[in-house]
Amino acid sequence: MSGNDKWHIIKKIFNEAIELEDSKRENFIEKSCEEDTYLINEVWSLIKASKHPSPIDQSIAPLTAGVFETKNLCGKKIGSYKILKEIDHGGMGTVYLAERDDGHFEQRVALKLLKNGFSTTRQIQQFVAERQILATLNHDHIARLLDGGVTEDGQPWFAMEHVEGLPIDLYCDKHRLNLKERLSLFMDVCNAVQYAHHKLIIHRDLKPSNILVTDSGSIKLLDFGIAKVLNPDELHGIRTDEITKGLMPLTPEYATPEQTLNHPITVASDIYQLGIILYELLTGKRPYKVEGRTAERIKESVCKTIPIPPSSALNTKEDLSELSHIQSEKKLEKELRGDLDAIILKTLRKEPEKRYHSVGQFTADIKRYLKEYPVKARQDSVVYRSHKFIQRNKLGVVSFSAIILMSFIYLVTVTNHSQQIETALNQAQTEAEKSEQIINYMMGMFKSGNPTENLGETVTANMLLNRGIEQADQLRDQPGIQAQMYDVIGRAYRELGEYEKAYPLLNKSLEIWKEHQPESDLTLADAYYNLGTVLHHMGDYRESDINFKKAVQIYEQKPGLESTEYASSLYAIASVRTVQRDYETAEAYHKRALKMRLQLPDEDPANIGASYEGLGVTLFQSGQPEDAMEMLQNAYNIYRDHYRRDHPETAQLLITRSRVLQHFEKTDQAEKDLKEALEIYKSVYGENHTETGVAKKALGDFYQSTGKYALAESLYQELLNSIAQTNEDSHPLKRPVLQALSRLYMETGNYQAAEPTLRKTVQLLESVLNPNHPRLSSARRELGLCLTNLGNFEDAEFQLLKSLTSIQNRSENRGYQQEEIAESLEALVELYEQWGNSEKMTTYSNHLAQLSEVN
After folding, report:
1. The Protein kinase domain covers which part of the protein (predicted)?
2. In the chain, helix, strand, coil percent, each to 5?
3. What is the pTM of this model?
């Protein structure tokens, strides 16, 4: 059916439907359009436009009169193009096939023009917005803007790349693509959408008809007519939310819950629509049927209908998918069940924050499925991890580290730890020694972790790792494998925050390697680095520094050797020395790490950016703010080029840079950086994500440092209310937010409010840190000062003496430790002065004087 034929049908149905009562109109349209989604949408868009013009638009001729006065433009010239024929109608514009007619060169384009009678103020703004959005996009899988302008009678138009192709669903069926081929094509779509997100543009109307595939198999993403611009300032001030305010721009079958509820639109909306498309490509059906076309009926269908798993959709025998004819329905159901079910259903969660956080995460899970790795979306179990591993390693002889790795990734997933852990352990998997015997050891451990083997017993992460330790303890006659076991389990505990459990295992691993490997072996360097990392977390900076140095010494014995691991060890020493306030040494090591990373041919630009950023922090803390700003700007340039401006790494750098700007008293720019960082995190992760909370806290800290206490307190309380909904004391932001809030109360003299927040802070720190850790010592000192001001002298004495003792018990003896001792002595002097204990006040005053003389 041609575009004109469709339009005549739409006109006829509209003219009849507009005369009917509301109660009868919906059934009439459904029946007349014979469930053709395109026809239904067009008729309803005209009815809506005719009934609800804006006050500005009411001065224009009635929409329903003008909309059908379609001019025959064939042969007419617009700009440099001659109209050949009409291609399609949309709710707002008409698309024509046109060819260049200025004698310079031949070129066919798709020329879009506002419909006659539809050139209202708002629609012109929306049309121009689409044109400007396309002008910013330059991607192989997005149709390119070629030209644009205004006709003699003032109608805006634009010409874009003419794409001859089929909608993606029809293309897949026509060319009989199998499941993996469909997934590959779909990932090209995801790449285009992700590119748009990096440009701060959300499509909002993803559906098969807006995704064409050419005969050569190339994807082209079309129609950014209702796209949302996240940062209008980057797009000539175009504010798409204001243009579409009061409207519900969506396609009902592909609408997201937040669209129907008029909630904020983020990247999660595009991910939801991509999930519907993938569901449709693999099953031939949509995840649910949208009943009716009124706003309330659409909202009810989209928000309340829970989609069944794609594999189950195949069991509804009507309308079998074309894919089920290409490969057997039974085989297709088996391939969909499990991983693909989980991946697709994660994209279709009604709550945006529970979907994938980015299109990149979505495609990464699809790639894991294709490579037979465990997918992030799926509920973890030891059996599942083991099954996926065996699928990838069908020879049956695999390394122990790979086996224990599966249980570790399981632990990490259920405790919501970062993707970096999996990367590090994948490397361990590749390098580990293969051993048939170890499979038997670990399969026994997995079996013990299976709920069917432990009826009535909840198998926890610690239980599983403890069983791994028991297995490792039995391997004294196989020291190499035993050392690997201790190393991997130790790192597992480290990433779970169980540093006291991680330390002895990593230390055992190191001792075994020292006994059985040459001192120059790189395996030893890795072991020193891993032990140094956990010691750093435990607050034992002296021993941490020693281990990092030993790792570096091994690398230094290999002339000409430069590697990512070598640079990471140098960077680690710099980080420790920065914490110890040994800025001169820290600066030297940062510069060595940076130089090496710049020379490595395949080094991740993110690592180079991290080196610039780390060096900038060290320079700033050492009193070199100008040089610090230069380094931070270098890091910013790398992140901008590597990540785009809206990437979380860029946001983190903006937070760091804001601190330097505050030093230069550029508070307006500092506040702008912090607000931009917060908006980036919101747009990428959503309102309630931990990273968004980090940015919100940084803004609160800024307000506190500039004396805007009410704004700071409001942000802190907002964060605590959000954290309270998780009911988890282990939430990574709970402790720092409590500490910041208590500091605010102390600064403003509100000691009654400060006391409970400080007590909760100390309690949280005690549960995760070494008793002598600097952060715990500092929190106790703050609590002691608060109690002193409240007149609770005995409790204040207890906290201050415990703080002082913990500092003195540390093995290192660096300058900043002496500063901590001095601060604790000053707090004790103040306590005894207020308490009226002149004897003890004199004693601690003398200690303080002696310390000053030594320094």
Report:
1. 81-370
2. 65, 5, 30
3. 0.44
